[in-house]
């Protein structure tokens, strides 16, 4: 098959752009829905194999697979993206464009296959926050602005020419779940603009990303790096909690002297009470005298109020409801 010159296409209708879609998460599934509702031809959907999840460890499909099934689209779930039989089936689809969102690294044999190559929607203003968890890290770092980027796939991770971006401000109390939804909508708008450019033979050349950059990287989140460090400032912990709320969730342990083993708690909502230094000798993590129906905690710089949390095997509760059912006692502290 002869590759098309992306700068010499005639005007195309939506159905003329044969899209190969690759993704896993809800963020990606929303873009898939948009493509179908907008009349674009999605000739194939590639997602991860079903994985065990939940208490029963039953096999669960990815959100993209669930949506593709609802839409009646053909689905592939390869274990290996370099498998020759899988690649042959992808070639047989004759894709015009690849669209990958919230997936994994693709081999060149796959991303270079479509006539117009493959583009990616990434939930950050590249080159800042390349990597697996850009939305979380932008909030955890206290960024004042973020956005979405559409770029052309190359061999590097999130390093291709940027074809478009949409930026938006971040409020100091925005939670990950809310920003996730907002950025998904921004990504849909950005993808729509790019596809319109494809139809009108106006595909942008794009802007090269710097090869050497000191911008931070959005490392994968784990149990180990989502634990709260109470020696950090109240503002830093507040940003940390909201950047992980509701998923994967910041956590800590509560120690109540004389009340048995420490319990692990998930924190969902916090508030900075004060950023003033605390008296010398105040231990970060210690529960402070608090107003009624409130829970104030000392940090390495200021006071933090916990407003929503979840105890083991319990439901998420506002702090007032939590305090109705527990006595913290003197000397209680988080660690």
UniProtKB/TrEMBL annotation:
Domain Formyl transferase N-terminal: 18-187
Alphabetized UniProt keyword annotations: Protein biosynthesis, Transferase
InterPro entries, sorted: Fmt (IPR005794), Formyl_trans_C (IPR005793), Formyl_transf_N (IPR002376), Formyl_transf_N_sf (IPR036477), Formyl_transferase-like_C_sf (IPR011034), Met-tRNA-FMT_C (IPR044135), Met-tRNA-FMT_N (IPR041711)
EC identifiers of the protein: 2.1.2.9
Keyword check for Ribonucleoprotein: no
CDD domains xref list: FMT_core_Met-tRNA-FMT_N (cd08646), Met_tRNA_FMT_C (cd08704)
Function: Attaches a formyl group to the free amino group of methionyl-tRNA(fMet). The formyl group appears to play a dual role in the initiator identity of N-formylmethionyl-tRNA by promoting its recognition by IF2 and preventing the misappropriation of this tRNA by the elongation apparatus.
Protein name in UniProt: Methionyl-tRNA formyltransferase
Organism: Porphyromonas endodontalis (strain ATCC 35406 / DSM 24491 / JCM 8526 / CCUG 16442 / BCRC 14492 / NCTC 13058 / HG 370)
Species lineage: Bacteria, Pseudomonadati, Bacteroidota, Bacteroidia, Bacteroidales
């Amino acid at each position: 098959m002869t590759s098309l010159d992306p700068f010499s296409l005639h005007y195309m209708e939506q159905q003329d752009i044969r899209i190969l879609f690759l993704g896993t998460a809800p963020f990606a599934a929303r873009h898939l829905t948009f493509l179908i509702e907008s009349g674009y031809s999605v000739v194939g959907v590639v997602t991860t194999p079903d994985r065990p999840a939940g208490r029963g460890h039953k096999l669960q499909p990815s959100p993209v697979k669930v949506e593709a099934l609802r839409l009646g689209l053909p689905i592939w779930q390869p274990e290996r993206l370099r498998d020759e039989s899988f690649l042959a089936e992808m070639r047989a689809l004759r894709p015009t464009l690849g669209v990958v969102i919230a997936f994994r690294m693709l081999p060149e044999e796959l991303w270079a296959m479509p006539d117009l190559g493959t583009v990616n929607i990434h939930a950050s203003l590249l080159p800042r926050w390349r990597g697996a968890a850009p939305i979380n890290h932008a909030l955890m770092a206290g960024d004042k602005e973020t956005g979405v980027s559409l770029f052309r796939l190359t061999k590097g991770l999130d390093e291709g020419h940027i074809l478009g971006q949409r930026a938006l401000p971040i409020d100091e109390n925005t939670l990950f779940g809310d920003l996730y939804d907002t950025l998904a909508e921004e990504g849909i708008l950005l993808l729509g603009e790019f596809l319109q450019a494809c139809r009108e033979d106006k595909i942008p050349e794009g802007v090269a990303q710097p090869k050497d950059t000191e911008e931070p990287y959005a490392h994968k989140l784990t149990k180990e790096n989502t634990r709260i460090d109470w020696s950090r400032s109240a503002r830093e912990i507040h940003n940390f909690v909201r950047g992980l709320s509701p998923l994967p969730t910041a956590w800590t342990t509560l120690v109540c002297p004389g009340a048995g083993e420490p319990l692990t708690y998930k924190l969902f909502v916090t508030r900075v009470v004060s950023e003033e230094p605390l008296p010398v000798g105040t231990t970060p993590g210690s529960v402070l005298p608090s107003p009624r129906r409130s829970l104030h905690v000392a940090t390495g710089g200021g006071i933090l109020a916990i407003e929503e949390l979840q105890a083991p095997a319990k439901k998420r509760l506002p702090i007032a409801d939590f305090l109705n059912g527990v006595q913290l006692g003197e000397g209680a502290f988080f660690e």
